[in-house]
Amino acid sequence: MSITLDVRRAANRRLLTDLDHPRQVFEHLTPNWFAAVMGTGIVANAAVALPIRSAALDAFATAIWATAAILLATIATAFVVHWVRHRENARGYAADPVMSHFYGAPPMALLTVGAGTLSLGGPILGDSVALWTSVVLWSSGTALGVLTAVWVPFTMMTAPRRSENVALPAWLMPVVPPMVSAATGAALIAHVPTGQPRLAMLTGCYALFGVSLVLGLMTMTMIYARLTHGGVPESRSAPTIWITLGMIGQSVTAANLLAAEADHVFTGAQAPIATGLAVFGIVFGLAMGGFGVAMFALATAVTVRAVRRGLPFALTWWSFTFPVGTCVTGLLALGAALDAAPIRALGEMLFVVLVAAWATVAVRTARAAVRGSVFRPV
To answer: Which residue spans traverse the membrane (predicted)?
Structure first.
């Protein structure tokens, strides 16, 4: 009996050593934990988008999607416990001028896993179950994302003025979800009945594209002005500058994936509409891609500067994953629309960078979770 107790005590000392009690895991569980789901799921979705196919790549993508799905279920359950047991803390984070923006992460987590379910879940769940699961995740993620895109800016407009309320890259988090809905909704269009229902789905996705694009561009203008006049984020917040690439990459993805589906909606006399949307996707992708190159270089420079000054690990490191993943899917979608091998090759090379970044952040997160340091208040 004494040996068993000693073993248990030794295990307890190895796990959550940075916490006073295991229950503290739920005490400060902030919404940016869902970024781990986003960053994991986008690896699977980007792998599916690659022009090359192999059994090994499919197995890898399926395993990553399954990991993202498990993470989503686990974090969502823990988040509910957080709200039930630590309601005061939860409300405080929801009202916080910085943390509240990360409430855009839960809907994007739902949408990312939903997209993977449609493309990878069939062999495991069955085609019908995979389709309907994807529909439920897309619908709930879209509804929650639109709500977040309105609710967070509203709270900012009506909250008491604070001197520290300056534009940060995290401000993009609540306005990007509708763009993710537009990009992931493209794959569902073919499963919608032809005629008016399919037209409604396509136009609805373009409306979501417009909502996010306009709000995102306005927000990015404020962020860029703040960065040039007020300096880049320091220390733990430095990686959040990569969030700007999420809007860029996801918008290029959405514009070209939706244009590809327009051929199945606008036929006959309306075929020129599909052609016009395809041209729009290409022109938009090339123009936004140039902007993306500049922001990628800027984000890289800021990150190198932060690393040289000592960049401590934090959940903000997940900003290295999802935004880069959207650039991969954007390049691949644009490359397919143009049938441009160099653009596709660039997307493939960036996929390698994405996998390396994901592996690094995932390992660091797992280690910090075992110690319990990531569950402490920021």
So the answer is: 33-52, 64-84, 105-125, 131-154, 166-189, 201-225, 237-258, 278-302, 314-337, 343-363
For the stretch 32-63, pLDDT in tens is 999 999 999 999 999 999 998 899 999 999 99
Report the distance separating Cα 208 and Cα 323, nearest Å: 19
CA distance 103 to 237: 17
Number of domains present in the structure of the chain: 1
Residue 124 has which token pair? 């495991």
CA distance 274 to 92: 47
Per the domain annotation, does 12 fall within a domain?
A: no
| CA triple 52-58-63, angle to 5 deg | 140
Residue 214 lies in a domain: yes
- 201 close to 172: Cβ distance less than 8 angstroms: no
Structure tokens given for 269? 């006399």
Q: Find where tokens 């690896």 sit.
A: 43
**Could you tell me the CATH number of the domain that includes residue 320?**
1.50.10.150
pLDDT per residue as tens digits for the range 102-155: 999 999 999 999 999 999 999 999 999 999 999 999 999 999 999 999 999 898
What span, in angstroms and rounded, lies between the C-alpha atoms of 321 and 68? 13
Residue 376 counted as domain residue: no
